[in-house]
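Now for a chain:

_____
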Amino acid sequence: MCNIILGGPSVKIPAGFLYFAVSAYGIYWAHHMIVRRHATAPVSYWYMDLLLGAIILGIGAVLRWTRWQAQTSWLPVLGSCMVAIYYVGASVVTLRRYLAGKILASIPQLSVALLPVLLALVLVALAVFEKFRPDLINPPAHSFD
């Protein structure tokens, strides 16, 4: 029973797909913003951080299903931290602009816009726990018997 509640061996597959989905969205968003801003202003290093972090996260997501998982388990940590740095920075800028009156949005609209920040922070926590405390993510079968 506890094995099911704490995740057991089935957490590993959804976590990998979560890494991969966030990676794909990060690559899409960084590419979109780099191409859109390239015509009007210098490309911000924030988007390069997001792009590089998303690529590292995607590589880590794929390699976690291979025999090199033990050697590359730091990739999801590094990639998710880089993605989270972008989203936390973007949320600070968004909140400052909202409080200054430059963004006109309701509280529900603002909370939906800031939802990726929560996802990025959860992803960092998952990657850190998976790297440094794998027994919490994938406990041994005999640990709760």
About this structure: The first helix runs from residue 2 to 5.
